[in-house]
Task: structure prediction
Amino acid sequence: MRAATPAVSVCVPAYQAERFLGATMRSVLAQNLGDFELLVLDNASTDRTEVVAHSFDDYRIRVIRNPRVLPLAENWNLAVHYSRAPLVKLLCADDLLRPDCLRLQHQALIGRTDLSLTACRRDFVDDAGRRLVAGRGLRGLIGRHDRTAVARRIVRDGGNPVGEPGSVLFRREHFEAVGGFDGRLSFPMDLDLWLRMLDHGDFHGMADSLAAFRVRPGSLSGKAGRAEYAEQRSYTRHIGGVRPVDRALSSVNAPAARLRRQGLFLLAGHYARQSG
Result:
């Protein structure tokens, strides 16, 4: 029986996602938190995405299809708009959750209205689900931190130390209060949202690795080039409330963060060629 208002909504915006969507949905349905809904928003895909989404017989699933392809930010915002729970996770259609993810992140936020969002560490996996790197992210961000502390860590890191949407559980009311994802941004779109939401509450970082980000050379992240990294650097330079030492460290750490990320995609591509 479907609860009127689930405790957590997992929103999966999907476009041409037939290859990995099934595994992503199974990872959500395997959660040991029972009270959640899984919303799949098919962004007018022309492959078998809709077929895969409808292939699961589970009352917790809702599948909605856009009549036309929407821009990324608009589609992600619409996915959250369709959600019904006070706590929301947006999970890309090729990423995965560990079985404890929703339960532990729900515990971190429930009853603590002074927290806006929580994030966990995540593993990086390749096309076949093989773990490339374990427990990445949240360096210097485990535990409770206010917006200023998170902003300083982001600038020092030069990348995205908080993590991708699949690592984050946030309050829907705070998402709505800040207007959701900003479509004027591309590469730092999620990072920008996390910072704006922290104007409404603090951040909680979890040491557990509870999600997996799929590293694929053909994905949007894998195609990121100089323009995308330049956008990231420009965004980071304009973050306020940080110290000169934070900006100085950013000039050193940002290129290193980019090289590490590119190395992961190269490694994933190597495994993919071997498998092919």
User: Anything to note?
Assistant: The first strand starts at residue 8 and ends at 14.
